Amino acid sequence: MSNENQELRKAGLKVTLPRVKILQLLEQAEAENQHLSAEDVYKTLMEAGEDVGLATVYRVLTQFESAGLVDRHNFETGHSVFELATDEHHDHMVCMESGQVVEFFDEVIERRQRELVDAHGFELLDHSLVLYVRPKRR
Ligand SMILES: [Zn+2]
Fold first, then answer.
1. Residue 36: DSSP 8-state
2. Number of neighbouring beta carbons within 10 Å of residue 70
3. Strands, E assignment, 1-138
4. Which of 12, 38, 133, 138, by CA, is between 20 and 30 Å from 3?
5. Cα torsion 87, 93, 95, 96: sign
6. Half-sphere exposure of 127 toward its Cβ, with a 13 Å CA cutoff?
7. Separation between Cα atoms, residue 16 and residue 62, nearest integer Å
8. Cα–Cα distance measured from residue 20 to residue 1, given in angstroms and rounded to the nearest whole number
9. pLDDT tens profile 49-65
């Protein structure tokens, strides 16, 4: 049984061709640190000659999200992007001109957030930090 099939079953999802194809794309994107919109997934499948409609892509991504397989980010660039859910925490910067998403992890920022929360009498459960950026002007 392929990796994707196992992943789907583990998440409690039946193995269907669109689900396998979309999971493969997300795994490929993960390897390249990319974040895909539903439209990106749809276009890539179409170019590969796969007959999967945009509505199906949306539905599968939503199912993946509910099953905890993927994380959805609603960045302020117009559309949601998706990436495989991982145990490793990272934050994002998003280019407002190109839509490019860059992942980063900064131990100083992480520590300061915990200290800040602690100073307010709380403990930190989770956070997401998004920096909206543009290319430097010369
Ligand atoms: Zn990410």
1. B
2. 22
3. 70-73, 81-84, 91-95, 101-104, 130-133
4. 38
5. positive
6. 14
7. 15
8. 12
9. 999 999 999 999 999 99
The identity of residue 22, as a single letter, is: I
What pTM, to 2 d.p., does this model score?
Answer: 0.85
d(CA 129, ligand 1 centre) in Å: 11
Report the separation in Å between the CA atom of 34 and the middle of ligand 1, taken as the mean of its atom positions: 7
**Could you tell me the distance, in angstroms and rounded to a whole number, from the CA of residue 70 to the centre of ligand 1?**
10
| pLDDT 10s digits, 30-88 | 988 899 999 999 999 999 999 999 999 999 999 999 999 999 999 988 789 999 998 88
pLDDT of residue 1: 56
**Bridge partners, 83 (sequence order):** 71
Ligand 1 centre from 85 Cα, in Å?
A: 9
